[in-house]
Every structure is written in structure tokens, then in C-alpha cells.
Amino acid sequence: MAEYIPSRTSETVVRERQKVERPRRYKVLLLNDDYTTMEFVVLILEEVFQKTRDEAVRVMLNVHENGKGVAGVYVKDIAETKIAATHKFAQEHGYPLKCGMEPE
Ligand code: TYC
Q: What is the rounded CA–CA span in Å between residue 57 and residue 53?
């Protein structure tokens, strides 16, 4: 939107107002599988997604029962970093745990 600002002289200064948009956010979705232990998923939710133990157990059980669930909502870079950390941590411990992301 153009904003007309009278200057001290007789000219008129036109300043383009920048549109400041909230960065798009992404849901990080945790996927269920038959091999990763419940305790390990809870640990991931505590360590990577900064959940309390109660929240972590609730999210893990939701994923276990429904096949997938939201571990957290973040801007793109952070979501990607958390997914990479989850996959690395799981792989290092021999678990097939997977997660992905989708726009909020
Ligand atoms: N279904 C797993 C089990 O019974 C537990 C689990 C929960 C695995 C959530 C992955 O994202 C997951 N051991």
C-alpha cells in the first residue's frame, strides 16, 4: 500500500509500506511403526521437541493409536532440523522411527 507523506518542501514523498507477513509454519508429524519402543518415542519428544514427560506420553499414545500425530509446529528451518535430528537419533539406536512435515 502506498503512503503519502508530506515533506517539508512542497514535494510529496511516496513511501512503499512493506507488507510484513508471518513466516509460514509447518506441522512436524510423527509416524507410527511396530518396532520403535514407546519409551524411545517419549525420549525423542522430550529431547528434540521439548515436551514435558506428560505431553510426550500423550503425543506418543496419540501416534500409536491413530498412526500419526503432531509433535510440534515450527518455521521451515526449525521443522527440518527437528526431523533430521529425530531420524539421526532413531537410526543411531536402530529404530525405523520416521517423521515428516506439512504446512499448518
Ligand atoms: N507402535 C509402537 C509400539 O507399539 C510405539 C510407537 C509410537 C512407535 C509412536 C512410533 O511414532 C511412534 N512399540
A: 6
Q: How far is 87 from 44, CA to CA, in rounded Å?
A: 10
**Residue boundaries of the structural domains of the chain:** 21-103
- pLDDT digits 0-9 by tens, 38-94: 999 999 999 999 999 999 999 999 999 999 999 999 999 999 999 999 999 999 999
Q: Which fold has domain 21-103?
A: Ribosomal Protein L30; Chain: A, (3.30.1390)
For the Cβ of 60 lying below 6 angstroms from any atom of ligand 1, the answer is yes
Q: Look at ligand 1, atom 11, and give the residue with the nearest C-alpha.
A: 32
- Expressed in angstroms and rounded, the spacing between residue 104 Cα and the centre of ligand 1 is 23
Q: Report the percentage of the chain scoring pLDDT > 70.
A: 84
pTM for the full predicted model = 0.83
Residue 52 Cβ contacting ligand 1 at under 6 Å: no
